[in-house]
Fold this sequence. Notes:
Elements: H1 2-26, H2 29-34, H3 45-48, E1 81-82, E2 86-87, E3 108-110, E4 114-118, E5 124-129, E6 133-136, E7 146-154, E8 163-173, E9 178-186, E10 189-195, E11 200-210, E12 216-227, E13 236-247
Antiparallel strand pairs: 1-2, 3-7, 4-5, 5-13, 6-13, 7-12, 8-11, 8-13, 9-10, 9-12
Amino acid sequence: MRGRTVLFVVLAVVMALGGVYIGWSTSSPKAAADAPATPPSSLGPAQEAGSTRSRSPGAAGPKVSADKGTTDKGTTGKGATVPGGKPAPPPSSKPQPSPGPVRFGQVTTAGRPNDTAVSDDRRVLTTSFEDFEVIDNPASGEPAATKSFSMTLPLTDGAEGETLKVTAQGFVYLGDGATARLTLRGGRRTIIKGFAPGSDEPFVQTLELPATPGRTYQLSVVIEIYKDAAGEGWGSSLNAATLDVVIS
């Protein structure tokens, strides 16, 4: 009986020593190194703690622009936009008036046979007449007469402020009792030059008009001879030899 008691005591001591050894082994540095590592948490301390604080300036996440919804109204270069997201319209491409001088366009004439020449710069025009003349000669049986000549003269675009000068040149000879008249007309302006009985001279008559860019002028020249009942009027004549038109 005593032997069994001693055996139980020995076993108890052995088991106690074994428990102490096992507890020491699991808490030793080597045991800690052999234990499996715990995977690191993907959440930050604030998230693990359930914090609702906002992210720090450097935190990852979608970036929200402070300028969202605004329109740069001062941008006029390439790629500029107007409200609504449409591209800004390009600068006006409307053609501007020519800064150069006014010139003659296509000239047409009607009336007496003539030779019309235009200078290379199309700013000087000369018309020479073959037979633009009226005669009162009782000896030949020719009555007093009226003759006319007309011209259509378009002008091109160009600078404002220039003048269109229309000049008729010729000769007049009138007997006693005969009178004559030259009429120059351009647009709404008309100049009449009268000749008295006994006139025997060359003449120059000029009509000035504004050379309006893009305008078409209708020019005309009329020559006339008249005789009173008592006048002889023999050999009276009036002719226009040339008609010059100059832009200056």
